[in-house]
Specification:
Chains A, B: It is an enzyme of class 3 (hydrolase). The structure is a homodimer of 412-residue chains. By secondary structure, chain A is α+β, with helices and mostly antiparallel strands. Helices cover 34% and strands 25% of the residues of chain A. The first copy, chain A, has twelve helices and 21 strands. The structure holds zinc ion (ZN) (4 copies).
């Protein structure tokens, strides 16, 4: 059943890494999986490894690109303000009862690029609203969760448009396997070493307790104030349920929470952002008091503006992340049109919801306390890339003194 | 994407019949679909026709035979007392809020035949219990619902074991299309004529108001008392939400509710019963006071006994149905190993839950009133075949007088 261009041994290693490293799935724990139908071969392997790890019940919910397109092409207008609220409510209940969550990404990033942006925005908003209680349990790290990728043909053809489908799928599969560190003899050990390195970088940043970071590069002169009591994280991390997992596979970043009210200056994106089917390129925004007051883009500007109008928090930052320019994903030179990969090629910021775990003692802070310390709130969380080999970053201490953090895209 | 052996025009007609005849889907109505992953091509066509009919949201939930097998082979023992209760709760909520329901059948009927029957029974019981609130809304006909079939390769290979897969799929596809009356120029009109014929048979039986039916044939001498105030139905029928739909495609039966306490004598099955992966053949049971007091089978007797021990109502009847031996499905000579088809080849009875709609004014009867009139209650509803060209059926009036209903398997 595996696509003939996808190496079955490496796919099986990816499944094993997802269950053992990504989720650290516990004996008796339920697992909720979401996946594109094309990822069926990976779902089957993950299901087997999950049960071998002692899973109680594995429940998979498939999305189908053709069904999504049928909705845009034939559904009545009212459909676009609707969402399967009862399903998301149920998922939220499953997480509250201890289930882990695994998402397989791999949809065609351009799927909705030909559809009415107003309908896309309405459908996304309805979906985000319905999904909020479940997403909060993930964003607040109540549970162990993980996201991995499968090389769907429709995605592969976007990444490698000049190759025949089989070649494109093979190239994307191999790029996913390399970035996910499963093309080595012992992927579980490779992940342990990688996690140790990311932990070292986080520890250095946490020792410095910078008040702000200053990004300087072409089209960028941005001061990102950090939230009071922020904490840097990277790699493996412990959820509130006590399970240490790797939410993102791949991951190359160390990241924390900016102060929602203390971002000043202008910044330019360094890679295109593929947002739910639309490519947004050459973003340029200006912040005042933490709020985006000017935004433009050479492509997808209308969709960017829809995003910014989702809610008040959509104009403010929920994450800032540091990734060396020499990271394997950047070195691959591939633009994946998928945030899970592209954010790991570059330093980035995210519009919208912050992660409560990026605060000291974050698990015990109330939403009000998080807000008071500068944590942002929103229905969205959208990462976009602002790093390159031409960007320098300084850490600014509370007394205004500066320490080089990165030079020309590398750790200083 | 369609299996190359499945005629795409006929598959599209099946999708159209499912939406327009099976569901009579209304503008703005949501639709919940359950399907095997192999039925993806039919789901896509149904999704398109549903949106063209004005569906609000179409949500499809796929089941995967490989995932089911992985559970049986690798999951810890505790897994088999678990079910995705939160999902079924949500479905129940969706139906309460007006959604219609479409099930695509087509799983390999022998899927679980090699698995531990005790685990199969436990998993089925956990699932039935969790599913009960949603199933009741379907069984009580609160909503318009429909079930159609897709010729999964794994099913086709069971039905036509001596053919190569492509030939088996093509034969099963054509048998499904013929039985579902979509191999004609205007399937919607063909269904209107067929519904009119079934309505005529029901009207005759309702006019007679028999107290009981008497089945006489090889290994069978059974008197099935009918529930007080029972009503015969067949073909199109109106759900409590006011929508007239065809729940089963195909359907050839007229059916009503037996009296749970008034079934006497013995009966032999005339076709094998494929129950959740196990074949149960040559069933022989004896009833006293409506209750099965003796049960044997030449194959699958252990599973039959597990079924009978599900709950008290599992030993009593919830349905009796009349189907002429000359029905197109019987004439095809194919054993489908699938109740949706095989029950329409023959007169049958069902163990377990009755349909409240098979009572006069059933929509307004409370569960207590239905019970008082002889309606049975159970977590299960399992049809098995007791008709053949050697079975005669008499209707017995309240005064004991007899009217021939069927002779040698045909309407008298
Ligand atoms: Zn990030
Ligand atoms: Zn992020
Ligand atoms: Zn029936
Ligand atoms: Zn039945």
């Amino acid at each position: 059943m595996t696509h003939p261009s996808v190496d079955p041994q490496k796919l099986e290693k990816l499944a094993e890494v997802a269950v053992r490293v990504g989720l650290q799935l516990q004996k008796g724990q339920d697992l909720v999986v979401t996946a594109p139908v094309a990822a069926l071969p990976l779902v089957r392997l993950i299901t087997r490894h999950a049960y071998m790890a002692g899973a109680g019940l594995v429940s998979t919910f498939y999305a189908d690109e053709e069904a999504t397109l049928a909705r845009y092409r034939y559904a009545p207008d009212e459909s676009f303000d609707r969402a399967t609220d009862w399903l998301y409510e149920g998922m939220s209940k499953a997480y509250a009862n201890g289930a882990a969550r695994l998402a397989i990404s791999g949809d065609n990033p351009m799927l909705l690029s030909g559809e009415d942006p107003a309908k896309v925005a309405r459908a996304n908003k309805a979906n985000s609203t319905a999904y909020k209680p479940a997403l909060e349990k993930i964003a607040n790290f109540d549970i162990n969760w993980n996201i991995v990728s499968y090389p769907n043909p429709s995605w592969a053809k976007q990444v490698f448009p000049n190759d025949p489908e089989d070649v494109a799928v093979e190239k994307l599969a191999n790029a996913i396997f390399a970035a996910s560190r499963v093309d080595v003899a012992d992927p579980v050990a490779a992940w342990a070493a990688h996690n140790a390195n990311l932990a070292k970088r986080s520890a250095w940043l946490n020792g410095k307790r910078f008040a702000a970071l200053h990004f300087k590069g072409p089209g960028t002169d941005l001061t990102v104030g950090l939230a009071d009591g922020h904490e840097w994280h990277g790699g493996a991390s412990t959820a509130k349920n006590g399970i240490t997992c790797n939410p993102n596979i791949p991951t190359e970043e160390v990241f924390t929470t900016p102060h929602a009210l203390r971002v000043e200056g202008h910044v330019s994106s360094t890679k295109p952002l593929s947002h739910q089917g639309t490519l947004i390129d050459n973003i340029q925004v200006r912040f005042e008091g933490g709020r985006i007051v000017e935004a433009k883009a050479s492509k997808g500007e209308a969709v960017l503006n829809k995003v910014l109008y989702t809610d008040e928090g959509a104009r403010r930052l929920g994450e800032v992340a540091l990734v060396p320019h020499s990271s394997p994903i950047s070195a691959s030179g591939i633009l994946f049109y998928n945030t899970l990969f592209d954010e790991n090629a570059s330093c980035h910021i995210a519009l919208g919801q912050c992660y409560s775990k990026c605060f000291r003692d974050g698990a015990n802070l109330s939403p009000e306390e998080i807000r008071a310390q500068g944590g942002n709130e929103s229905l969205i969380h959208i990462d976009w890339m602002i790093g390159s080999d031409k960007v320098d970053i300084d850490g600014i201490a509370a007394d205004g003194s500066r320490v080089p953090a990165m030079r020309a895209g590398e750790w200083a």
